From TrEMBL:
Zinc recorded as keyword: no
Protein name per Swiss-Prot or TrEMBL: Gluconolactonase
Highest taxon, organism lineage: Bacteria
One Pfam family, short name: SGL
Segments forming domain Isochorismatase-like: 327-513
Record keywords, A-Z: Hydrolase
Domain SMP-30/Gluconolactonase/LRE-like region, chain residue ranges per copy: 29-284
SUPFAM superfamilies according to UniProt: Calcium-dependent phosphotriesterase, Isochorismatase-like hydrolases
Length: 519
């Protein structure tokens, strides 16, 4: 569907004809989308259904029921989930192990209305809005209100759980404060009001208070289209994206309306996601939609979480856990010419290093475990014609392949090594390049199987394995490299790849750790 550009600057942010993909549907009322920066999935609330759901390449599944009718979600800098709970009138922190802590529930001895949306500052302070939608039927639990107004609150950095929050806007300013977001430099905070159909902007004082509030945008309503201000985010350039009638309204930092991103259902909230943060996810009524955009989000603290909070290798933190239903195993280039004595490339030292790594037995053990668990096993074989008319000799590697008379389909050298032959039910992918993605059916197979975590093994570590891992990471897949299931010409080349390049694009571990992690 076509989007509306009211100012030429809009086209720098999103193409007017960018597709709107329905990523999931059949829900009650979606809200609170938030993207996990390392595990690459979207978490969102299905508020009236009292469910929290996860959207990834495998589809949508429940992760919490009940969810206390949670609405807005975000992460703190340690990747703990922060949730606005309508049913409990609480703002809570949920740690990765499931521990739930109430951060705020009362103000001056009275229960909060129903925390609605939330954002975290660089210093760890947490700001949230508190309209009373969560005390209405359908969206929450119907019950009397204890506060006679609707405010905007701040939890100071390092506050004790349950400590009274600070009121940062005069209590009668907003009728139904809803979405809120910082500018990229955190000098400004934007707060919208659903009932007033406007956005206010405040200066953020040194003590965290919001001062000098003024109307930033007003009249965010349409007599012919449903929708009002609700969720709101700021992009990396300081533009403000706010839900409204017909979709998402985009305002320049000076308040000009640049354009509107059209969404098929009335939208409630939005967030960026994807491996490059260039997918806009919009929660809209019964569905979640995804729109490719040209600009990313403001760099929030959770997007730059410290390494300890991320998926560290299994020997650097908690034991590795892998969801077998999302995994696929790749066995790449384990062919006679590549790693066996007598093969075309044997003079390089590759057979010796393959033995030192115990790569063939390790991969065979891992493949057997994957087959037993229903994890797809995908063999990627480098194959070429004898006359080399299907090869381009643009690089020394490809020239060497032809000069060595290697990898010719139908010859012993191109056959898989003993012990790693394709079994019934396995997939076989042909390639003529280093990367398993280039010109192959790999991604089609992964999508058909619904797999988003790739366990990659094979040869050579610093060439095919590294190239495939880099591209897989760029495409949004979680790449897992059991380093003793890979080999190359010598230990120095292997370690250089494993210890440097791979650490930036993959989770590096061992065969035994992966087998244990699969359960």
């Amino acid at each position: 569907m076509a989007h509306t550009a009211l100012d030429p600057a809009f086209r720098r942010l999103v193409d007017e004809h960018a597709p709107v993909h329905q990523a999931g549907s059949g829900f009650t009322f979606t809200e609170g989308p938030i993207w996990h920066p390392t595990d690459h999935y979207l978490l969102f609330s299905d508020m009236p259904a009292d469910v929290r759901r996860r959207l990834d390449r495998a589809g949508v599944r429940e992760v919490a029921r009940p969810s206390n009718k949670a609405n807005g979600l975000t992460y703190d800098a340690d990747l703990n989930l922060i949730a606005c709970e309508h049913a409990t009138s609480s703002l809570v922190r949920i740690r990765p192990d499931g521990t739930r802590e109430v951060l705020a529930s009362h103000y001056q001895g009275r229960e909060l209305n129903s925390p609605n949306d939330v954002c975290v500052a660089a210093d760890g302070a947490i700001y949230f809005t508190d309209p009373w939608y969560g005390r209405m039927p359908h969206y929450g639990v119907e019950r009397p209100r204890q506060l006679g107004w609707q405010g905007v609150f701040r939890i100071r950095p390092h506050a004790r759980p349950g400590e009274e929050p600070q009121l940062v806007v005069e209590r009668y300013t907003h009728s139904q404060p809803n979405g809120l977001c910082f500018s990229p430099d955190e000098r400004l905070m934007y707060v919208n009001d659903t009932e007033q159909a406007n956005i206010r902007v405040y200066q953020v004082a040194a003590d965290g208070a919001l001062t000098n509030g003024r109307i930033f945008a007003s009249g965010i309503r349409d007599a012919l289209l449903p929708g009002l201000p609700d969720g709101m985010k700021c992009d990396a350039e300081g533009n403000v994206w706010c839900t409204g009638p017909g979709g998402v309204w985009v305002f320049a930092p000076d308040g000009r309306l640049l354009g509107k991103v059209s969404i098929p259902e009335p939208p409630a909230n939005l967030h960026w996601g994807g491996a490059d943060w260039r997918t806009l996810y919009v929660c809209a009524s019964t569905s979640v939609y995804a729109v490719p955009v040209k600009v990313g989000p403001r760099n929030e603290p959770f997007m730059r979480a410290p390494p300890a909070a991320r998926n560290a290798p299994a020997n650097e933190g908690d034991p590795l856990r892998l969801d077998a239903s999302r995994c696929a195993l790749i066995i790449q280039d384990m062919q006679n010419d590549v790693v066996m004595d007598g093969g075309a490339f044997a003079p390089s030292g590759s057979p010796d290093h393959c033995r030192q790594q115990n790569a063939i037995p390790n991969i065979a053990r891992l493949a057997a475990r994957c087959r037993a668990l229903g994890v797809p096993v995908i063999h990627v074989w480098f194959l070429r014609r004898a006359d080399a008319r299907d090869m381009t000799l643009n690089a020394p590697l490809f020239e060497g392949c032809v000069d060595a008379n290697a990898m010719i389909e139908g010859t012993w050298g191109a056959e898989p090594v003993p012990g790693l032959e394709a079994q019934p039910g396995d997939h076989v992918v042909r390639k003529a390049r280093m990367s398993a993605w280039e010109g192959t059916s790999l991604e089609r197979i992964l999508k058909a199987e619904g797999r988003s975590i790739i366990i990659e093994t094979g040869a050579w570590t610093n060439m095919s394995i590294e190239h495939t891992a880099r591209t897989g990471a760029d495409k949004g897949y979680v790449m897992v490299i059991p380093e003793d299931g890979c080999s190359t010409m010598n230990a120095d080349w292997h370690r250089a790849s494993i210890d440097y390049a791979m650490r930036n694009v993959a989770l590096v571990t061992t065969t035994d750790e992966v087998i244990a992690a699969l359960g």
